[in-house]
Design a protein that fits this description.
Mean pLDDT: 79
Structural class: alpha/beta
Strand order of the largest sheet: 3-2-4-5-6-13
Radius of gyration: 40 Å
Transmembrane segments: 375-395
Enzyme class: transferase
GO molecular function: DNA-binding transcription factor activity; phosphorelay sensor kinase activity; sequence-specific DNA binding
Number of domains: 5
Low-confidence stretches: 4-37, 669-694, 828-837
Number of helices: 29
Number of strands: 27
Distance between the termini: 102 Å
CATH topology of the largest domain: Heat Shock Protein 90
Protein name: histidine kinase
Organism: Hymenobacter mucosus
C-alpha cells in the first residue's frame, strides 16, 4: 500500500520559495508625523515593492541531491537503465544526480556508498553487486535518516525505503513454463546462471526450478556459472555441452550469455537443434530483440530496467507524496510471434524520446531568451520608478531628518541609562552566582568527609556476611546505596565547580576510542538483557585512535547511557554509533534511544545546571547532562542533541581527532601534578617512602561482588594504581593486555573461577611473572593448599586486614625485583641455555637463543625477534621489561658486548672483525659502546689481557 516517508532528512529542501509578509496594516510612521498629503509617495513605494516581489518570487521546487551506486555500467542492460533515468530526470531540472560505477566490486561499492552518505545526499539509490555485502551499509544509511531505494537486486534486509525491480522468481517461472511448453513436456535443459550471491541469479534459478518441478520429464542436467559475462560462458560451456550431448534447451540468465551460448553451440555443430532462451529483451543491435528476430535465440524474457520508475519513486519520497514500498515490474516472453510488435513499440519510444529531447532543448533556449528580456524590461521600469521615488524622497527626507535626529538623541539618552542599569544588575547577578557556587563548593567539601566515614564502615560490615542478619544487611545496603548516591552528587558538584573556574585539566593518552566505548557499554549489558532492550554498537571502523582523557569521557558517556536507559521503555532499543568526519577532522559518537523524548519547551534549557524539565525524573538531579556538556567542552568537543517527543532522542558527542594544544600528557601531568587540588582541601594520603610504594605500581583486582571490589579499591588506591574486573574472563583478558605488577583475585567467580584464572596466568609466558594473591571465604587447610598448588603466591581468607594486604603486596613486589636481578645475572653468553624449570626461564632461554643465532646481523630488530617468537612487539617489550628491567634493544646490545669481550681474547682477532661478527655497523660505533660499558677501549682491553 502507498506510504509516506517519515525520514527527518526530507525536510531540508534547499530551494524553498521565499514569502513576504502581507502589507495589510495602514501605514503609520513611528514618529507619528503627519504625512497625509504625501500619500502618493506611499502608493508609489508599494508599487515598486510589488513589482520587485513579482520579479524575484521563485516558485521552483527545492533542489534535491540523489546519489546512485550502480554495480556496473559494462553491459547494455545497465546502460539502458541509466538512459531511462536520464530521460525521467530531464523533466526535473531541480534534481542533482550523481552516479558512481562499482565495476562489479562489492568492496568498492561499499566505499562509494559510504562516500555518498558522507556527502549527505537527500536520497540514495543502490543497485547492489551482491546482496549480502551491501546489506549493512544500506541499513546504516537508512538508520541515519537517508531514504534508500534498492534497484534491481535486493538486499537481505527489509530496512530500506522502497524497492524497484523485476520479480526475478517470476522471470524464472515464466522461462521454465515456456521451456516446458517448447519441449512438449520432455527433454534435457542446461542453465547458465549469474553471479552467486546476487539476488537475480538466486531468484531466477529458484523460479525456473519451481516451474520445471511440475514436468517430471523435463530435467535440468547441468548448470554453468556465467557470472553475467559472455567470456565466462565461452570458457566453461564447451566442456559441459560435450559431457551432455542430449541437451535440448539452454536457459541463460541474460541475453549476452545466451548469445555466447549460441556461439559455442554453433562451434560444436549443435546450433540447429538447440533452443536458447535469454533474459533482458533490450532493443538495438546485438541485444535480445535483434537476436530473436535473427533466430539466434528462441525467445527472450522482458526484464524492465526500472530506471524511470526508480526516479519517479525517489521524487515521490522526496516530495512526501504517497509511494509504494515494493515496486515489482512485470515480464513477458518475446519470441518470433510478437518480436516485431515489441520492436516497433520500442522504436516508437526511442523516437519519442529523441523528439522530447529536441523539444526540451528548444524550450530551454526560449526560456533563456524570455528570462533575459523580462529582466531587461523590469530593470528599465524599476529604474524609472526609482528615479521618481528618489526625487520625492530627497525632498521629504530634508523635512524628516531634523525631527528624527531629535527623537534619536532622546532615545540614545534613554538607552545609555538602561545600559548602566543592566550592567549594575549583571554585576549583582555575577556576585550572587559566585556566592552560590562558593557555597555549593564549600558545602560539598563539608559533606565528603562524613559521607566517606559512613561509607567505609558500612562496606567493612557488608564484607563479613556471617555477622549480619538479613534485615541488617538490607538496611546497610540501603544506607550504602543512598550514601553512594549522595557522594556521586557531591562529586558532580565539585566537577561543576572545577569546570566553572577552569581548574580541571584534560590529562590525555592516545588510545582506541572504539575499544574504550565498547568497554563502557559492557557495564550496561546486563541491564539491557534484563529489560529486553536491544543494545547495539555500530562503529564505522574497528579502530579510531585519538588523544582523550578516559576519566572525563567515562563521565560523559556514562551519563548519556544512564539517561538513555532511564527513559527507554522495556523492549525498546538503544544504539551507539561512531564515525569519522573527514571534512572537520573529528569523530562523532551518537547515543540514540526510542524513549519518550524531550518536550519542545524543555529542549532550550536541558543543558542548564539543576534543570529538570516540565516532567522531572523521580531520581534526577538536573546535573548529569549539564556535567556531560561541560566536560565535553572542556575536552575541546561539543555535545548536541535532537529529540522528537514520543519518538526518542539522539545525543551526539563530537571530539577532535588531533591532540589539542590545551591537553596535558597523562604521564607527565601525573608526575608534575600537585598533591592538593586547588578545589580539594582534603590532605593527600601519606605514602610509604620505599620504592615499592610508588604510585606507578599497578594492581588488578578481579572480584565479582561490587561492594568488596569497591572496598579493595578504596584500601589499595592510596598506594597503587588500581584497575578492576568483575569476572574471571574479563580479568584474564585485562591481565594479558595491560600486564599489571600484581593481581588480587577472588576464588569464587562466575563461570571462570579464581583457581582457573591463576592457572591460566601462570601458564601464559606473558603473565607468568606476575605475583598473584587469592582472596576467599574458604578457609579450610585443603582449600588453601589447593590455591597454593594452582600457583598463587599468597592465599588470604576473608575477613582480612587491609594493612596486612598492602604490606603483603609490597613484599611480593620486592621479591619480584630480587628475582629480576637474579635473571639479569643469570642471562649471559657464557650460559648456553637457562634451565627451563619455569615458564619465565624458558622464555628467557628462547629469547637468548634467538639473539645468539642472529648476533652477527646488524639489522636485527625487535620486530624480527617478536616474529621469531610468534608474539607482538608490545608483548615482547612488556615481558622483557618485567623480567629484566630493561628494554629489548638494551638486552641485544649487552649480549653483543659480552660476546665481543670473549672474541677479543682470542688469538689473532682484530677489533674490526669482532665488531662485524657481533653485529655492530662499524668498528668506531663498537668502540664507543664498548668503552661506555667497560670504561676501556677494545684495543686497551685486548692489550691488557693478551699482552699484544
Amino acid at each position: 500500500m502507498p506510504v509516506v516517508s517519515k525520514h527527518p532528512r526530507l525536510r531540508r529542501g534547499t530551494g524553498a520559495t521565499p514569502t513576504l509578509p502581507a502589507l495589510t496594516q495602514p501605514y503609520s510612521h513611528p514618529l507619528n508625523f503627519s504625512v497625509t498629503k504625501h500619500d502618493w509617495f506611499r502608493f508609489l513605494t508599494f508599487g515598486v515593492l510589488a513589482l520587485l516581489v513579482s520579479c524575484t518570487t521563485d516558485t521552483r521546487e527545492p533542489v534535491y541531491r540523489i546519489g546512485f551506486s550502480q554495480c556496473t555500467t559494462n553491459d547494455a542492460w545497465r546502460r539502458a537503465m541509466l538512459a531511462g533515468m536520464e530521460k525521467e530526470l530531464s523533466f526535473h531540472p531541480n534534481v542533482q544526480f550523481q552516479m558512481l560505477d562499482a565495476k562489479n566490486n562489492s568492496a568498492l561499492q561499499r566505499q562509494q556508498v559510504q562516500e555518498l552518505i558522507r556527502q549527505k545526499v537527500d536520497l540514495l539509490l543502490i543497485s547492489p553487486n551482491q546482496s549480502g555485502p551491501l546489506t549493512a551499509i544500506a541499513e546504516a544509511a537508512y538508520n541515519q535518516g537517508i531514504p534508500v531505494v534498492i534497484l534491481d537486486r535486493r538486499t537481505t534486509s527489509r530496512l530500506y525505503t522502497a524497492y524497484v525491480g523485476g520479480n526475478n522468481q517470476e522471470v524464472g517461472r515464466t522461462a521454465g513454463q515456456y521451456a516446458a511448453q517448447l519441449l512438449s513436456g520432455r527433454g534435457q535443459v542446461l542453465e547458465i546462471t549469474g553471479t552467486p550471491g546476487s539476488s537475480p541469479a538466486t531468484d531466477r534459478t529458484l523460479g525456473f526450478r519451481q516451474a520445471l518441478s511440475s514436468h517430471a520429464s523435463v530435467q535440468v542436467v547441468a548448470q554453468v556459472l556465467g557470472d553475467w559475462q559472455p567470456a565466462s560462458v565461452l570458457a566453461r560451456l564447451p566442456s559441459v555441452l560435450r559431457a551432455h550431448p542430449g541437451v535440448d534447451l539452454i536457459f541463460a540468465h541474460n541475453d549476452p550469455m545466451a548469445r555466447a551460448a549460441h556461439q559455442v553451440a554453433r562451434q560444436l555443430g549443435r546450433a540447429e537443434r538447440l533452443h536458447i532462451i535469454g533474459v533482458d529483451g533490450l532493443p538495438g543491435p546485438g541485444n535480445g530483440l535483434q537476436l530473436v528476430e535473427d533466430g539466434v535465440l528462441k525467445a527472450t524474457l522482458l526484464y524492465p530496467t526500472g530506471g524511470e520508475e526508480a526516479i519517479r519513486t525517489a521524487l515521490r519520497i522526496l516530495r512526501h507524496e504517497p509511494y509504494v514500498k515494493d515496486n515489482v515490474l512485470g515480464t513477458m516472453v518475446i519470441d518470433s510471434l510478437n518480436v516485431g510488435t515489441v520492436r516497433a513499440q520500442t522504436q516508437a519510444l526511442v523516437a519519442q524520446r529523441q523528439d522530447l529531447r529536441r523539444q526540451q532543448l528548444r524550450l530551454k533556449e526560449q526560456m533563456r531568451r524570455y528570462a533575459s528580456q523580462k529582466i531587461t524590461v523590469y530593470l528599465l521600469l524599476a529604474s524609472l520608478m526609482v528615479a521618481t521615488l528618489l526625487g520625492a524622497l530627497a525632498w521629504r527626507s530634508s523635512r524628516l531628518n531634523r525631527r528624527i535626529r531629535e527623537v534619536l538623541e532622546g532615545q540614545n539618552a534613554q538607552i545609555s541609562a538602561q545600559h548602566n542599569q543592566i550592567a549594575q544588575l549583571a554585576e549583582e547577578a555575577r556576585r550572587s552566582s559566585e556566592a552560590k557556587l562558593r557555597f555549593f563548593t564549600n558545602f560539598s567539601h563539608e559533606l565528603r568527609t562524613p559521607l566517606t566515614l559512613i561509607l567505609g564502615p558500612v562496606e567493612d560490615l557488608l564484607t563479613n556476611p556471617s555477622e549480619l542478619t538479613a534485615a541488617q544487611r538490607h538496611d546497610l545496603q540501603l544506607v550504602r546505596r543512598n550514601t553512594q548516591r549522595l557522594l556521586q552528587l557531591v562529586n558532580q558538584l565539585l566537577d561543576f565547580r572545577k569546570i566553572d573556574v577552569g581548574k580541571m585539566a584534560v590529562r590525555a593518552t592516545q588510545g582506541n576510542l572504539v575499544a574504550f566505548v565498547r568497554e563502557l557499554m559492557d557495564v550496561f549489558e546486563k541491564t539491557a538483557l534484563r529489560r529486553g532492550i536491544t543494545f547495539r554498537f555500530l562503529p564505522a571502523e574497528p579502530v579510531i585512535s585519538l588523544w582523550f582523557d578516559g576519566d572525563i569521557l567515562d563521565k560523559v558517556f556514562s551519563n548519556l547511557l544512564s539517561n538513555a536507559f532511564k527513559y527507554t521503555p522495556d523492549g525498546g532499543h538503544i544504539t551507539v554509533s561512531m564515525q569519522r568526519n573527514a571534512g572537520t577532522n573529528t569523530v562523532q559518537i551518537s547515543v540514540e534511544d526510542n524513549g519518550r523524548g524531550i518536550a519542545e519547551t524543555d529542549q532550550p534549557h536541558i543543558m542548564r545546571w539543576f534543570y529538570q524539565g516540565s516532567q522531572p525524573s523521580a531520581n534526577g538531579s538536573g546535573l548529569g547532562l549539564a556535567l556531560a556538556d561541560g566536560l565535553t567542552r572542556l575536552h575541546e568537543g561539543t555535545l548536541s542533541f535532537r529529540s522528537q517527543p514520543g519518538h526518542g532522542s539522539t545525543f551526539t558527542v563530537t571530539l577532535p581527532l588531533e591532540k589539542p594544544t590545551t591537553f596535558l600528557d597523562a604521564e607527565l601531568a601525573h608526575n608534575t601534578h600537585a598533591p592538593n587540588d586547588l578545589l580539594d582541601d582534603e590532605p593527600a594520603p601519606l605514602l610509604d617512602e620505599s620504592p615499592l610504594a610508588r604510585t606507578t605500581t599497578t594492581v588488578l583486582i578481579i572480584e565479582d561482588q561490587e561492594e568488596v571490589r569497591n572496598f579493595l579499591v578504596q584500601k589499595l588506591q592510596p598506594h597503587f594504581q588500581v584497575s578492576t574486573a568483575a569476572d574471571g574472563a574479563t580479568g584474564l583478558r585485562q591481565a594479558s593486555e595491560t600486564i599489571p605488577d600484581v593481581v588480587v583475585c577472588d576464588v569464587n567467580l562466575p563461570e571462570l573461577s579464581g583457581l582457573d584464572v591463576v592457572a591460566a596466568l601462570k601458564g601464559d609466558w606473558r603473565t607468568s611473572h606476575i605475583p598473584l594473591v587469592l582472596l576467599t571465604a574458604r578457609n579450610a587447610p585443603e582449600q588453601q593448599i589447593e590455591g597454593v598448588q594452582a600457583g598463587a603466591d599468597l592465599y588470604l581468607t576473608k575477613p582480612f586486614n587491609p594493612t596486612f594486604l598492602v604490606e603483603s603486596l609490597r613484599t611480593l613486589l620486592r621479591n619480584r625485583d630480587q628475582q629480576r636481578e637474579h635473571f639479569r645475572r643469570e642471562l649471559s653468553v657464557d650460559t648456553a641455555t637457562v634451565a627451563p624449570q619455569r615458564v619465565d626461564q624458558k622464555f628467557l632461554a628462547d629469547l637468548m637463543a634467538i639473539i645468539e643465532a642472529n648476533l652477527d646481523r646488524s639489522s636485527l630488530s625487535v620486530d624480527d625477534i617478536a616474529r621469531s617468537m610468534g608474539i607482538s612487539q608490545m608483548q615482547l617489550y612488556r615481558k622483557v621489561k618485567a623480567l629484566l628491567g630493561t628494554g629489548v634493544i638494551d638486552c641485544i646490545q649487552n649480549l653483543r658486548l659480552t660476546k665481543a669481550r670473549q672474541l677479543l681474547l682470542q688469538e689473532g682477532s682484530t677489533i674490526a672483525q669482532v665488531a662485524y661478527q657481533t653485529g655492530f655497523s662499524s668498528p668506531s660505533y663498537f668502540a664507543t659502546l664498548f668503552k661506555g660499558k667497560y670504561q676501556v677501549s677494545p684495543s686497551e682491553f685486548k692489550a691488557l689481557h693478551t699482552g699484544h
